[in-house]
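ok trying this again, last paste got cut off
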Amino acid sequence: MASFRTDPTNLHSVHPDDVLRVDRQVLLNGPVALYGPPERLRQHVAALESYGYRCPAFDCGGWASEADMHRAFAAGLEFPSYYGRNLNALNDCLSDIDIPEKSGVALVLWRFDRFARLPGVRAWDVLDVIAHASWLHSLYARRLLVLVQSDDPKLRFPPVGARPVMWIMWEAHKTDEPGAEPDPAT
């Protein structure tokens, strides 16, 4: 039987407990994860904070336009005063944000479905910009995640950063998962 090696210099050696970490669960499918009911997201944010992540949260339900989103990101992420308040500027600033070594930043977007439903809003583009910035940070072994909460289980996005936008599934509420078939036994 092969023994598990915990040599930190061996990059191919991953402790089994590390596989269960929330950040790794999210990153298996890409840097963007969708959440339904808030409780699971709160648990995951607490776990990420325990790993040393910064988790700035944004209530997207109060945003009435992309301009509101840019104002919130500029203030919450402490963008420089010259931030251009457009998607190119968002890409530039997210690519330059300070990410703690050996942990990361997880942007928490509460009620994103409300923002995504606004006419003329490019919600997918916002997620794609964040995914692109995440990829750039990963080149330097830093993690940028975006945890997207939705009250609408039908919310869907095309892939961002060439990765699917997946729902975080949870065992206790299988029938409540988007697209889950009702249990015929109940």
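PB: full thing came through this time. The chain is about 35% helix and 10% strand.
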